[in-house]
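Give me the fold.
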Amino acid sequence: MKKAVTIVAALILFFAISPVCKAEPGEGGGLDRCPVCGKLVYKQPEIAAFIYYEKNGKIRYLAFDGVADMMKFYFEPNRWGDFGNIKMHILKMVVRGHSTKKPLWAKRAWYVYLVETDTEGSAKARLVPFKSRESARKFMRESGAEALLGFKEITKEILYPEKKKERE
């Protein structure tokens, strides 16, 4: 029991020091393919988001093609594959700041919520992360965005604006 507590304490200290760490790829087999949309994350690393978790005593990660995909996974992990009770094993979530491209703790970031429409007319949610609320507000004014949200204000419903359109 003491050994388990020591290991947990060491992991907590390790993650408290830095928002980024060395970890093994998760279920994607090392290709860093987004489990939600299937895109290869390395093609747009500036918008990549990550979930770090523990599995079988090892720290692993999943890479996502943007914050919205990461949040879709966060709310419904088993919709995207057999991830069991992964939510209980999440150690941290990391996003990249919009203007700085530096890693940020996902739960401490501010998000500008945008709804974009593609050429076929379908709506897609986008969450643009910022370190400070002031930077996010400035971007929001310039972009004509929908809303400014903290992590806890992000809901599953806002991630699917096309479903909202269908109900209207």
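Residues 22-167 form one domain.
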